[in-house]
Design a protein that fits this description.
The protein has 166 residues and is α/β, with parallel strands linked by helices. It contains six helices and five strands, in the order βαβαβαβαβαα. Strands 3-2-1-4-5 form a five-stranded parallel sheet, sandwiched between helices. Bound molecules: 4'-phosphopantetheine.
């Protein structure tokens, strides 16, 4: 039996909505950390399609069988939230070189703010490298097929949003 303290990681983001790329990263993270908190940024300036509660419910539904995946919202600085959770790692997915610059800036700023919290980058399966929440919303709202790119529950909820708009 190992006697190290539990290795806790945070996987932060907007998740508006959750994509199969996110699911892939959460699964990878949940295999290497004892506990992973999917942390949804609350009160972000941009106007989300899904409310915070809807996003929490969707991710909980997708990961209901995984005891070491928790879903929460957070406010304020990510590193402050991470320290409250006694997390030692921030997980971020890197899809392509285009993600790198923004991620590198955030990782170094977060390190400056909290040197003991390490950012860990993970690559999703290559079949998800072009998926983003923004593109999913745009393609879906314009009538394109998104099956296989998001969990079925997300597709259902998107259909609900579309009906509500009609
Ligand atoms: O996947 P996203 O939507 O690009 O996630 C961005 C997120 C939530 C990771 C980032 O905006 C964030 O950490 N916000 C919390 C406020 C904060 O700590 N800002 C300083 C980051 S260096």
């Amino acid at each position: 039996m190992s006697n190290h303290p539990p290795r806790v990681a945070i996987y932060p983001g907007s998740f508006d909505p959750l994509t199969n790329g996110h699911v892939d990263i959460i699964e990878r993270g949940s295999r290497i950390f004892d506990q992973i908190y999917v942390a949804i940024l609350a009160n972000a300036e941009k106007k989300p399609l899904f409310t915070e509660n809807e996003r929490v419910a969707i991710i909980r539904e997708v990961f209901k069988g995984r005891a070491n995946v928790q879903v929460e919202t957070f406010n304020g600085l990510l590193v402050d939230y991470a320290q409250r959770k006694q997390a030692t790692a921030l997980v971020r997915g890197l899809r392509a070189v285009s993600d790198f610059e923004y991620e590198f800036q955030m990782a170094l700023m977060n390190r400056r703010l909290a040197p003991s919290v390490e950012t860990v980058f993970m690559m999703p399966d290559e079949k998800y490298t072009y998926i983003s929440s923004r593109l999913i919303k745009e393609v879906f709202m314009l009538g394109g097929a998104i099956a296989g790119l998001v969990p079925p529950v997300v597709e259902e909820k998107l259909q609900g949003k579309q009906k509500a708009r009609r």
